């Protein structure tokens, strides 16, 4: 049983790392030892746990399922094995710096904060909510959330969910303007523009086929996603909003989706951390809490 638990512990470390080499550093093993353990588990289950190439390893769907099943078992065993007087909460203490877009603050970061506070009261969270793309390495950020794509080799990233963009309007506005049949008709109607504070220019709207459209003469320009959504709910303009923002208002009938046949593919919602070698337990705990919160938000 001890050997089986150790194999699963190595697998968990590999799944939470960007490479088998990083997992080996965390565990004090050789990269070859991690590789042998993963191969032994794959032989046992008769399933691949990771897709491998010369540049990276990527966990498989079966691996994700095994990780979700094994993580609570390993945590329970580690709690049981911990000597008296060295509680998990005492070990997981210290400062963790977190960055996230403002639109995910109350929706994902706050639920994660609640979980961390309940299970690890020794952890202090330093939250930096901003739509500005920060340099997580230079600014000492431990964990971050990002919408879109993560291809930066400096970070370990986990796709925790997916986000769909919806073009929406209030029923009152649709009654006044009619429903646009295509983007050309939409261009003649009042729309919002979300300001990219990184460039000072409006973000484009995204549609299927990779088409991007910048509103030529917006009725509202905002650098805050919730303010933009407020303008849509007030019947002032059309907007393109993330589904985690618009979903409850669409369900209640306060917002209506338009141009659904032009919707773009879903984007990823990523939790990431800089690669700095071994990961402190407090950082891993916040990383997991944010991943779970984003996953629940995306699946709501």
From TrEMBL:
Q: Per the database record, which ranges form the HTH lysR-type domain?
A: 1-60
Read off the InterPro entries from this record.
LysR-type_TF_proteobact-type (IPR058163), LysR_HTH_N (IPR000847), LysR_subst-bd (IPR005119), WH-like_DNA-bd_sf (IPR036388), WH_DNA-bd_sf (IPR036390)
Protein name, per record:
LysR family transcriptional regulator
**Superkingdom to which the source organism belongs:** Bacteria
Q: What is the organism lineage in this UniProt record?
A: Bacteria, Pseudomonadati, Pseudomonadota, Gammaproteobacteria, Oceanospirillales
Return any one Pfam family short name.
HTH_1
Q: Which UniProt keywords apply?
A: DNA-binding, Transcription, Transcription regulation
Residue ranges crossing the lipid bilayer per the database entry: none
Name the PROSITE patterns on file: HTH_LYSR
Q: Name one GO molecular function term.
A: DNA binding
SUPFAM superfamilies cross-referenced by the UniProt entry: Periplasmic binding protein-like II, Winged helix' DNA-binding domain
Q: Which organism is it from?
A: Halomonas binhaiensis
Q: Which family does it belong to?
A: Belongs to the LysR transcriptional regulatory family.
